[in-house]
Amino acid sequence: MRFEVDFLVLGSGIAGLSYALKVAEHGKVCILTKKGTSDSSTKYAQGGIAAVMYSPDSYDKHIQDTIIAGAGVCDEKAVRITITEGTERVKELIGWGTNFDKNALGTFDLAREGGHSEYRILHHQDKTGYEIERALIESAKQHPNITIKENQYAVDLITQHHLGETVNRHHPSVECYGAYVLNQTDNSIDTYLAKKTLLATGGNGNVYSTTTNPVIATGDGQAMVHRAKGRLSNMEFVQFHPTSLYNPAEKPSFLITEAIRGAGGILKTIDGETFMEKYDKRKSLAP
């Protein structure tokens, strides 16, 4: 079958859903997900989301913490934009129905995690990602301009190549017109044409034998861009979660929240010896 929409979103995590909610004010949006709507890396995030909310915290402190945690290879302009706009993005999540924990004073119960010099982690119990995903899905389902389709596996992006034009990686501008999608309910290939296509397909953690990423993190979006002769960059930067419960028979590995170190947890060897002081002056709070 053939479908035409204004905005095609591949992926139903925090990136895809928040984008859909914004652009839905300007046209029809179709969100495709290869499993269920809530099956994304977002719901597995436990500890929380970092944002500058109250003094004595400041944007400059958060920026400095981030640059240090990035071992000096961060793009400072990108860091500054992300952090200075982060507070407003958190307020958007709240506006879409996300509930972050508050203390007895009615202010946000901020936690601290590795690499952070201040308490700036907003959280919902110990399942923050699950709460964010819940709120965004509910908001998206209620929006009249948003359609969500499950069990739809994006196969390839539609570009000039499919119009008979030769496209290579030196092409000045690869244009995307939508995607070919495998409908896993009947094994048919459908064509989705869109004015704008967003790839919010998540990471590729399952390329590694041990990962805390869910099994759906298989790099589908990166593969589609590569086949479409698009340009991939910074692929070497993969975030590894520092703490997990090791079980050789289990995949993905059970994630242990970073907040456990912020609350005083100490990293030790199997023999019960501390070791982080050899590598970082912040010891177990190192990023």
Descriptive account of the structure:
The protein has 287 residues and is of the alpha/beta class. It has six helices and ten strands; from the N terminus they run E-H-E-E-H-H-E-H-E-E-E-E-H-E-E-H. The protein has a six-stranded mixed beta sheet with strand order 5-2-1-8-7-6. Strands 3-4 form a two-stranded antiparallel sheet. Strands 9-10 form a two-stranded antiparallel ribbon. The longest helix is centred in the first third of the chain and has 20 residues, at 76-95. The model has no long low-confidence stretch (mean pLDDT 93).
List the helices and strands and how they pair.
Layout: E1 2-10, H1 14-23, E2 29-32, E3 49-50, H2 59-69, H3 76-95, E4 121-122, H4 128-142, E5 146-149, E6 152-158, E7 178-183, E8 188-199, H5 220-227, E9 244-245, E10 254-255, H6 259-262
Helix pairs in contact: 1-4, 2-3
Task: Indicate the multimeric state.
Answer: single chain
List low-pLDDT spans.
none
Can you tell me the CATH superfamily of the domain at 1-43 and 129-241? FAD/NAD(P)-binding domain
Helix content: 10-25%
First and last CA, distance: 48 Å
Calculate the mean pLDDT score and round it: 93
Strand order of the largest sheet: 5-2-1-8-7-6
The CATH architecture category of the domain at 1-43 and 129-241 equals 3-Layer(bba) Sandwich
Tell me the major beta sheet: 6 strands, mixed
Content-based structural category: alpha/beta
From the 3D structure, determine the CATH topology of the domain at 1-43 and 129-241.
FAD/NAD(P)-binding domain
C-alpha Rg, in Å? 21 Å
Tell me the number of strands. 10
Number of helices, counting only DSSP H or I runs of 4 residues or more: 6
String of helices and strands:
EHEEHHEHEEEEHEEH
CATH C-level label of the domain at 1-43 and 129-241: Alpha Beta
Q: Rough shape?
A: globular
**Approximate strand percentage:** 15-25%
